[in-house]
Amino acid sequence: MQIVRPVNVIDIPAIERLLVENGVNVTSLPQDRDRLAEIVSLSTKSFNLEQEAVEFPFFMFVLEDLETGSVIGVCGLEASAGSGYPFFNYRLEDLIHASHHLEVKNQIPVLHLSHELTGSTVLKSFAMKPEHKHTDGFALLVRARLMFYCAFQSLFSDRLCTEIQGVLNEQGESEFWNSIGQKFFDIDFATADYYAGVKSKTFIAELMPQHPIYLPLLSPEAQETINREHPQTAMNCQLFFAEGFTKTRFVDIFDGGPVLMAQKQSLKTFKDYHAKQIKVSHQVGGLKYLISNQSLRDFRCVIGNLVDGVGDTVRINPEIADALQLEAGSVAGYSML
Question: What keywords sit in the KW lines (predicted)?
């Protein structure tokens, strides 16, 4: 059985191996032990909000194989985008340039530096061993954060977003960055991405041009990548679209990748979410559900069969109850897989 649970400090070596061995490049998961330890520490404090005050919580989860004890995936949930600082993106718009004398009218696409999404809840820091991406574990890792979101709604915004990695060339470079960011920083994409991971995106955005950027002035290669996702993120996008997320006019300031957004009320997980007392039974049929406990500090989420009958109780088997640290009469949250 696979389970999503809060990260802890002993998971750091496993997360490092996951990132290195699988060539994972996620800005918010830097391959820097000190910075990674800081992120894990913040997450631990956030899960312990009942005892510790955290102004801007960030929750990191791992996907663990209970049989082997191995960590096969990691993901994060940031309560408030920017964590007290502006959360920068580019906003795509069209400007009309017209001349009545020449009878010319042109619609020109432009990019505006924006921090409109500041304060949104952000799904981020996703990484998973490739061999598990075509299993139920993939949906579990992506959607367990939303189960946590449903259980503790008061901690989060009604607006959610996620930044999808943009298109890179054969050399692993971003043509979008080469056409804009590199002109102002004189550093390559990989270096800028590393600095953003160990510091923040804020220091980059503060030095970016504040005036609109006219897309026709960018290289053709850069224009082609705007609001397009990296091929390796296709499964992520499909799942997010099925969940209720949509593409927006916002793109990432580094690689021009799309920013997906959803309102709480439109989320499939939220609309299907219920919480009821459990009965533990060896005789369980039913359908597959995402099932979680209701503990902030010791949150657990699995995929398993559940029988939702008439009334205020549901039936699950002992193995699932044990994995979720639940007993008869405890309350479980659940949503259709």
Answer: Acyltransferase, Arginine metabolism, Transferase
Among candidates 226, 281, 289, which has minimal Cα distance to 89?
Answer: 226
- Tell me: the pLDDT tens digits for 60-115? 999 999 999 999 999 999 999 988 888 889 999 998 877 777 778 788 999 999 99
Phi, psi dihedrals of residue 13, rounded to the nearest 5°: -60, -40
CATH class given for the domain over 273-336: mainly beta
Distance CA 289, CA 303 (A): 6
**What amino acid positions are annotated as catalytic residues?**
230
**Top-level CATH class of 2-89+114-268?**
alpha beta
Average pLDDT over residues 6-18: 95
CATH 3.40.630.30 positions along the chain are 2-89+114-268
Phi, psi of 73 (to 5 degrees): -170, 165
Helix axis angle, 33-47 relative to 12-21, nearest 10°? 130
Q: Tell me which residue has tokens 């996951």.
A: 18
302-319 pLDDT, tens per residue? 999 999 877 889 999 999
- pLDDT of 275: 96
Q: CA of 72: how far to CAs of 15, 111, 190, in Å?
A: 8, 38, 25
Could you write out the three-class secondary structure of 3-33?
A: EEEECCHHHHHHHHHHHHHCCCCCCCCCCCH
Alpha-helix runs per DSSP H in 262-317: 268-272
